[in-house]
Amino acid sequence: MAESDIQRGSWNSKAGFIIAAAGSAIGLGNIWRFPYVAGENGGAAFVILYILFVILIGLPVMIAELAIGRHTHKNPIGAFSRLFPKSNWKLIGIMGVVTGIGILSFYSVIAGYTIGYFVKLLSGQLNAISGPAESQQIFATFTADPYVSIGYLFVFLIFTAYIVLGGVSTGIEKWTKILMPLLFVLLIILAIRSITLDGAVKGLEFYLNPDFSKIRPSTLAKALGQALFSLSLGMGAMITYGSYLSKRDNIISSAVSVCFFDTLIAILAGLVVFPALFAMGMDPAGGPGLVFIVLPSIFHKIPGGMYFGAGIFLLLSVAALTSTISLLEVAVSYFVDEKRWTRQKATIIMTITAFICGIPAALSFGSVEWLSRLPLFHIGMLDLMNAVFGNYSLALGSLLIAVFTGYKWGINAVKTEIEEHGNRFGPFGLWAFTIRFLCPIAIAIILGYILITGHYF
Ligand code: PHE
Questions:
Q1: Is the Cβ atom of 263 under 6 angstroms away from ligand 1?
Q2: Residue closest by Cα to atom 7 of ligand 1
């Protein structure tokens, strides 16, 4: 290993990398965002599109990002300028760093709420919930308090900063390894409870039996955005994590595992949410509050449910944390590599930036009227940031990454990188086709259509 690699750090083991990358991918995107976006966009038909986009666009772009990262051993901006010095391709990286901080800001607001719910459940404040209407009321009151929202946002960012300060492998690997499998087990238990509720069948039908007449152009954009968001693609998180990979590691099998586990957890989250939601007669298009309203309404139907619920929200906070570390790490690795800042300085400054940008999002659940429904856009600040950074910027970033690897850096360069140290790039032809044609064309059509029709949100 070169001197500079030792200073940057690398993963302790191959499993360490997969775990960390899966930790970045699995988070609120799967458990908070996926069910409510699927609920708003027609259920099963959306789920099928989502899975198609994971396989046809997400997986190829993930392979491209990991190859760029490992080849250059650099942050997303440095990676492009190392491959093509003085070219404009580094703009992809700059957009990625900005997007990363943008996502980190609003994401940490929701992540903060998961800590809040953990505390609420543990202290017995949700014991006497009578049903979804009350659960809804509790969520609304909780999130409309500006001190609570900003306070938890702050707490969550401090946790994130603390781990990023510790550096890449010691901090990230240790946490993810034990807690993600536990989250998986608790979700399975919850899904079983949800599916066995009276009236759950209607929910299963909504979730699993597609009605393709419900697909609109904006459904395509949302399914694409959701796939990219959930897999942490399009803004360089996987370039950054790939830069800590060693040449021995197999990029293809790592990418396949990450996509598989990420999708599995999202599907499972849907199996928890939709049966319960229909059993209780709620509206599937309930918006960003959905899991916070549905989950507490089922906990009291389980023995010891409030502790169980506290466990779920705690693990959800941890899942969110392993994602926010990757968001922060993108910007931090850039300032450390390129601007020669110390890790400490970069972490502190970027965390403060995310905190400041997160405040308007934290105030958009009713505490400040105009932030909760922005003039012109007619949606709240958090929803706007979610759409801009969490959908469109990732789609544009992925499009550019596909064009870059397909035409500029070249498919053969990727093949060479992947096959170093004897690994084989089996489905190379298929990958090359998707990255050169399918990904750029599909994303361009979807973005173009949205631009023309103006159905942005
Ligand atoms: N993939 C993460 C999640 O699903 C969010 C994320 C998006 C993380 C983009 C990094 C980059 O929660």
A1: no
A2: 232
DSSP 178-222: HHHHHHHHHHHHHHHHHHTSTTTHHHHHHHHS--GGG--HHHHHH
| Centre of ligand 1 from the C-alpha of residue 442, in Å | 22
pTM for this entry:
0.95
Q: What sign for the dihedral angle of Cα 442, 440, 431, 65?
A: negative
Q: Which of 34, 106, 180, 323 to mutate to test the pocket of ligand 1 (most atoms within 8 A of CB)?
A: 323
Q: Point out the residues of the chain with pLDDT beneath 70.
A: 1-9, 11-15, 168-172, 174-175
DSSP letter, residue 422:
G
Q: Tell which residue, 225, 180, 181, has the closest CA to residue 29.
A: 225
Gyration radius from the chain CA atoms: 21
Ligand 1, atom 6: closest residue by C-alpha:
232
What is the rounded distance in angstroms from the CA atom of residue 153 to the CA atom of residue 150? 5
- Classified by CATH at the fold level, domain 3-375 comes out as Hydantoin permease (1.10.4160)
List pLDDT tens digits, range 360-416.
999 999 999 999 999 989 999 999 999 999 999 999 999 999 999 999 999 999 999
- Is-contact 361 382, C-beta < 8 A? yes
Residues 6+ away with beta carbon under 8 Å from 263: 51, 54, 230
- Domain spans, the chain: 3-375
Q: What is the pLDDT of residue 12?
A: 66
Terminal-to-terminal C-alpha distance of the chain: 47
Which tokens is 394 given?
Answer: 């990732």
For residues 234 and 61, the answer to whether their CB atoms sit within 8 Å is yes
Residue linked to tokens 């609920």: 39
Does 230 contact ligand 1 (Cβ within 6 A)? yes
CA of 54 to the centre of ligand 1 (A): 14
